[in-house]
Amino acid sequence: MNKTTKITLLIIAGLLVFNGLINISDNGGVLAYDIASILSGIGFIVVALSKKA
Fold first, then answer.
1. Rg, Å, the chain Cα set
2. What phi, psi does 31 have (nearest 5°)?
3. DSSP character at residue 52
4. Positive/negative CA dihedral, 6, 10, 11, 13
5. C-beta atoms surrounding 34 within 10 Å
6. Burial class (CB in 10 A: 0-12, 13-18, 19+), 44
7. How far is residue 39's CA from residue 18's CA, in Å, rounded to a whole number?
8. Please, what is the angle between helix 3-27 and helix 32-50, to 10°?
9. Nearest Cα to 45, choosing from 4, 18, 6, 3?
10. Which pLDDT score, from 0 to 100, does residue 42 have?
């Protein structure tokens, strides 16, 4: 995986995790959407870091 793709995946992952955490703090509750967003972000991080450059 080239460097641009890896950086793009990490940016998307960061935004997904950030989105989930901000929604939890904004609503005051944990919704299925928030959990899905955080887990998707973690998945993107794992994929980006597991692929060889």
1. 12
2. -105, 165
3. -
4. positive
5. 19
6. buried
7. 11
8. 160
9. 6
10. 95
Locate tokens 């919704």: which residue?
31
Q: How many residues can be counted in the chain? A: 53
**Which residue matches tokens 């929604």?**
23
3-state secondary structure 18-47: HHHHHHHHHHCCCCHHHHHHHHHHHHHHHH
Helix (H, G, I), strand (E, B) or coil at 1: coil
Quick: pLDDT tens for 1-53: 788 999 999 999 999 999 999 998 888 888 888 899 999 999 999 998 997 75
Residue 13: strand, helix, or coil: helix
